[in-house]
Amino acid sequence: MSIANSNTSLRFPECLTHGPLLLLPEEVMLAEGCLHGQAVLIDDGVFQVVGDAEALCRRYPDLDPIELPGQLLMPGMIDTHHHLTQSLGKSLVFGEPSEIFKRIWIPLETSLDEEMVHLSAKLAAFEALRGGFTTVVDAGTRSPADTTAIAQAAEETGLRCVLGMICNNRGGTANVSDVDMDAAILQRGECHLARWENHPLVRPSLAVSIPEVASDAMLHSASQLCGEAGTIFQTHVNEHLQAVERSLVAQRRRPLEHLHTVGALGPQALVAHATLVTPDELNLLRDTDTAVAFNPVASAWKGNAVAPALQMAALGIRFGLGTDATRSDGFRLMDAAETSQRLAFGMTTGDASCGGGWRWLDHATRGGADAAGLAGLSGEIKPGCAADFLLVNIDVPEMTPSWDRPWELVRYANRDQIDAVFTNGRLRLWQGWPMEWDGRALLRQAREAAKAVEDAPIYRVHPTAAELLSRRSVGYTTAGQQS
Questions:
Q1: Contact between residue 446 and residue 439 where contact means Cβ atoms under 8 Å apart
Q2: What is the spatial distance between Cα 105 and Cα 298, in angstroms, rounded to a whole number?
Q3: Is 320 exposed, middle or buried (CB count within 10 Å of its CB: 0-12, 13-18, 19+)?
Q4: Do 275 and 298 belong together in one domain?
Q5: What is the domain extent for residue 395?
Q6: Is residue 466 situated within a structural domain?
């Protein structure tokens, strides 16, 4: 059976909506590269067999093979750092100085009730799936609403989610924490880890927003709980100069060094950003096997520096790519990762490769799954892994002729080439739109909910572009009349 039309954009999704599926794409992205002549058998939500197409068709004569000419079957990408409850205020941060969480995100998120948390998370999940992400790591919301609303959004959209619960027990640089409050936070953390332990799409996690908003004991205990539960502990670290300097004043240690001192680093830890890191701190990451979420777009839009991802790779530090809720487009994220390393490090050292296309594909998929605590579950096309994958139209001018598919995907591919998005073997999005729920109705809801954002006590340093242009227009008119 073939489901391609004349320009090989997929046409009939019905045959992809029930399994088992024996797929014969033009190319399959495996660990050894993008290969021709391969077939993939999917059943019960996982990849059952991957191998030679002719051999698999003979082996399973009762299955109707689905030919996919002009399509690349590749792993879904992993967003190792996201904030799902920030989607309603996305462009409010454009052009703003660093540490926008204080002026924009905390006021916005704390104003969201459970209904708004669900709406925001569902909108963000929709964006992520459209951008080729089948998994996101949510760093936790500051809303007082229950995280169940976020999990529900993941369930409804089909997005795999590592769901963080924030365990902050301090405000700012306060030095005192309440013993009863600490016990209550850790008890909630234990309940959170137990509640989502066996969910098909949601994996629990504990988080501290930044090290200075948790006591040493809380940092240690939250990280230890995650290690015992086989999941990840998350925190933002060494992202902004102000935070590094506050830590030096308060602790006489940099934030990453402080995490190490209190025993919060380790293979269960995922630190976001790590842009301002010293050689000694890179060694700490390596020696403790701590993973990093590398957020290149966040660095370009609001950061103080670019994480030395190539040096991390050379040292064997595990890392994935993250959006930090900036722009949910996996292909553009990989392009930003490669470009950031080229501009920040490669040009000064004469490094023309900057890791090559395959490195960024690997860290967007398999490496991202490893950093997110999902190694062996997602991020690869191989037997036993969850069938989280994309069908990407490669029959386009930008990729014709093809000489180096990994580089082409990093530098040329766009999310509009993604024809299908699957998680757990189920078709979730078809050419950018959901199959099982009304995506446009969600957009209408989000537009109507904008009033909640307007009412939040957000402080922007700069006016919006429309406001600025309006002011300039009035100024020019007045000047002309006066002259």
A1: no
A2: 14
A3: buried
A4: yes
A5: 13-74+387-434
A6: no
Q: What is the CATH number of the domain that holds 33?
A: 2.30.40.10
**Could you tell me which residues come within 8 angstroms of residue 330 by beta carbon, excluding any fewer than 6 positions away?**
77, 79, 131, 132, 133, 364, 415
Contact 137, 164 (CB under 8 A): yes
64 plus 85 within the same structural domain = no
Ramachandran category for residue 136: left, alpha or beta (phi over 0 → left; psi -120 to 50 → alpha)? beta
Alpha-carbon torsion, ordered 107, 110, 114, 118, to 10 deg: 50
Tokens representing 272? Answer: 């976001």
Q: Does a structural domain hold residue 449?
A: no
What would the pLDDT profile of 391-418 be if each residue is shown by its tens digit?
A: 999 999 999 999 999 999 999 999 999 9
| Mean local confidence (pLDDT), 207-235 | 97
Reported pTM: 0.93
End-to-end CA distance of the chain: 74
Q: With respect to residue 201, please indicate whether it lies within any of the assigned structural domains.
A: yes
For 358-378, the pLDDT digits (tens) are 999 999 999 999 999 999 999
Structure tokens at 24: 């014969």
Query: How many distinct structural domains can be found in the chain?
Result: 2
Q: Report the percentage of the chain scoring pLDDT > 70.
A: 94
Q: How many other CB atoms are found less than 10 A from the CB of residue 15?
A: 12
Report the C-alpha dihedral over residues 254, 259, 261, 266, rounded to 10 degrees.
Answer: -130
* Cα-based torsion angle of the residue sequence 208, 204, 181, 272 in order, rounded to the nearest 10 degrees: 0
Do residues 42 and 180 both lie within one domain?
no
Alpha-carbon distance 141 to 419, whole Å? 31
- 273, 312 contact by CB (below 8 A): no
pLDDT grade for 139, boundaries at 50, 70 and 90: very high
The reply to whether 60 and 99 lie within a common domain is no
- Which has more pLDDT, 271 or 89? 271
For residues 234 and 289, membership in a common domain is answered with: yes
